[in-house]
Design a protein that fits this description.
The chain is α/β, with parallel strands linked by helices and 437 residues long. It contains 18 helices and 14 strands. Strand 12, helix 15 and strand 13 form a beta-alpha-beta unit.
Length: 437
C-alpha cells in the first residue's frame, strides 16, 4: 500500500494542502442529480404508487403498500431476536447519548422594560422528524448508532412524531437490531423505504407516509442529493460528504494508534479522508509502516486501501503552531490531538466537528458511546456548522408585546425609519393607534 508522505512546504505539499482546503463538493454528478430530480418529481405526483414501485425495482420485489410499514409483530419478533448482551450495550450507549444531549436543551426567555414592553424568544420543537437509516449490506451491518444519534436528540427536543425509514432486504424485512434500537428510544413508526424515494416521501408526504418537518440521517450519494434538493421545503441536518479524520501528532505519539485510527475512517468508504500532520519525520515513517502492517488484517481492507491510496496523506511540519493553523484551515470532521499536553492546545482549535484529545481517545469512542453526536460537518463546513443536536429539531419564535405608553415612547423612531424606507403604511399603523392620524 502506498500513502503519500510530504513536507508541507514542498510544492507537492502545498498543492495537497490547497486541495484539502477546497474539498467542498456541491453534490453528486449530473446523472445523479437528474435521476434524483425525476424520483422526487414522480413521488410528489404519484405518492405511494411511485414509492412501492421503486421499492420493488431496487430493494424487495415482493413489497406491497400493505407491508410498507413495520408491524407490531415485526417489532415483537425483533425483540425476541436480539440477545441480552446487545441490549445491555444498547442501553449503555443510549444513556450516554441522552445524558450529553440533555445539556443542549434551550429555554424560552423574556425581557421586560419599565414602560411595559415585553420581548422574548419562544423555543418550540418541530412537529415531526424523519430519520433515514441506511440498509447496510442488505441489513447485514445494521447502523444502530445512527438510530440513537439521530433519534435521541429529537426525543429530547420534544418532537411529537419521529418516523424512521430504512431500505428493506430482498425478503422485505428489516434487521431486528435496527427495530429493537428504534423501539428502545420510542420510535414505532417505521417504513421499509430507502434511497431518494424515501427522502421524497418524507419531504412531500404520501397517503401512507405523512410529510415531516426535518429530515436527518446518513446515506449514499442519492440520499445526500435528495436531501439537498428538498432542503428549504424541509430542514435537513447537513450536506455531508465522506467521513474524514485529521490527526495531529508530535514525537510522543504512538504510530500504531495513529494508523489504527486512520484505518477506522478509511474502512467507511473508498472516498473517506484520513490525514496526519506531524512534527516528527520519524513518526511519519512509522505510521506508514503501521498502515502496511495493520491493513491486511481488516475484512474491509480493499475499501480502506483505496481510500488511503487515493486520499490518504501524511504531512510533515516544523511546529505544532503550524499544524494547528493548518488544521483550522482544513476544518475537519474529526480532529485528533495525539500530542503531549493536548488540553493546552485545545484553545487553539477553532474549526472542527469534534475534537479527540490524547492517545487513549479513539474516534470510535465518539462514534458509539462517548455521548456527543457523531453526525458532524464534513468537507470543511466545520467552519460554519455544528454537530447535530437538540437544536436541529427546534425553532425559535420572537415574542413582542407593547403597552400604549411603550408605543408612545417608540413611535417617533418607528415612523422615522418607516418614512426613510418609503413604507408609509408602517408609520400609519403606529399613528392611528395613538390618535395622530
Amino acid at each position: 500500500m502506498n500513502i503519500q508522505t510530504l513536507r508541507v512546504d514542498s510544492p507537492e505539499g502545498r498543492q495537497s494542502c490547497a486541495r484539502l482546503r477546497q474539498r467542498f463538493s456541491e453534490g453528486g454528478e449530473e446523472n445523479c442529480r437528474q435521476a434524483v430530480r425525476e424520483i422526487l418529481g414522480r413521488v410528489s405526483k404519484e405518492g405511494d404508487t411511485a414509492v412501492v414501485d421503486y421499492c420493488r425495482r431496487f430493494d424487495s420485489p415482493t413489497m406491497t403498500l400493505e407491508t410498507l410499514r413495520v408491524t407490531e409483530e415485526e417489532f415483537a419478533q425483533a425483540d425476541r431476536a436480539v440477545d441480552a448482551a446487545f441490549r445491555e450495550t444498547l442501553r449503555f450507549a443510549a444513556e450516554r447519548i441522552r445524558t450529553f444531549h440533555e445539556r443542549e436543551r434551550e429555554d424560552s426567555w423574556i425581557l421586560t422594560r419599565e414602560d411595559g414592553t415585553i420581548t422574548g424568544r419562544m423555543v418550540r420543537p418541530v412537529d415531526s422528524a424523519g430519520l433515514y437509516v441506511p440498509g447496510g449490506k442488505e441489513g447485514a451491518t445494521p447502523l444502530v448508532s445512527s438510530v440513537l444519534m439521530n433519534g435521541i436528540p429529537a426525543q429530547i427536543a420534544g418532537v411529537a412524531r419521529r418516523v424512521m425509514v430504512t431500505p428493506p432486504n430482498r425478503a422485505g424485512g428489516v434487521n431486528p437490531f435496527l427495530l429493537a434500537t428504534a423501539a428502545e428510544i420510542g420510535i414505532t413508526e417505521i417504513y421499509k423505504v430507502g434511497s431518494a424515494w424515501a427522502i421524497a416521501a418524507l419531504a412531500y408526504g404520501t397517503a401512507t407516509i405523512p410529510a415531516v418537518d426535518v429530515i436527518v440521517g446518513p446515506g449514499n450519494q442519492y440520499v445526500a442529493e435528495a436531501k439537498r434538493q428538498v432542503m428549504g421545503r424541509v430542514r435537513i441536518d447537513m450536506l455531508a460528504g465522506p467521513s474524514e479524520v485529521l490527526i495531529i501528532a508530535d514525537e510522543s505519539a504512538k504510530p500504531a494508534f495513529i494508523a489504527a485510527d486512520m484505518l477506522a475512517q478509511a474502512e467507511h468508504d473508498p472516498q473517506a479522508l484520513a490525514v496526519v500532520i506531524t512534527t516528527s519525520a520519524g513518526v511519519a515513517t512509522a505510521v506508514a509502516g503501521e498502515l502496511a502492517r495493520q491493513l491486511p488484517q481488516l475484512p474491509r481492507a480493499d475499501i480502506a486501501r483505496t481510500a488511503l491510496e487515493n486520499r490518504g496523506l501524511i504531512l510533515v511540519v516544523d511546529s505544532l503552531d503550524e499544524a494547528m493553523d493548518l488544521a483550522n484551515e482544513i476544518a475537519i470532521e474529526h480532529l485528533e490531538l495525539q500530542i503531549d499536553e493536548p488540553w493546552q492546545w485545545l484553545p487553539r482549535t477553532r474549526h472542527a466537528g469534534a475534537v479527540f484529545l490524547g492517545p487513549w481517545t479513539p474516534e470510535a469512542a465518539g462514534d458509539y458511546v462517548a455521548g456527543p453526536n457523531h453526525v458532524l460537518p464534513t468537507m470543511g463546513t466545520a467552519r460554519i456548522s455544528s454537530a447535530l443536536g437538540v437544536e436541529t429539531f427546534v425553532k425559535k419564535s420572537s415574542i413582542i408585546s407593547y403597552s400604549r405608553r411603550a408605543l408612545e415612547a417608540d413611535s417617533e423612531h418607528i415612523r422615522r425609519l418607516a418614512a426613510l424606507e418609503g413604507l408609509t403604511a408602517h408609520g400609519h399603523s403606529v399613528a392611528i393607534r395613538l390618535g395622530e392620524d
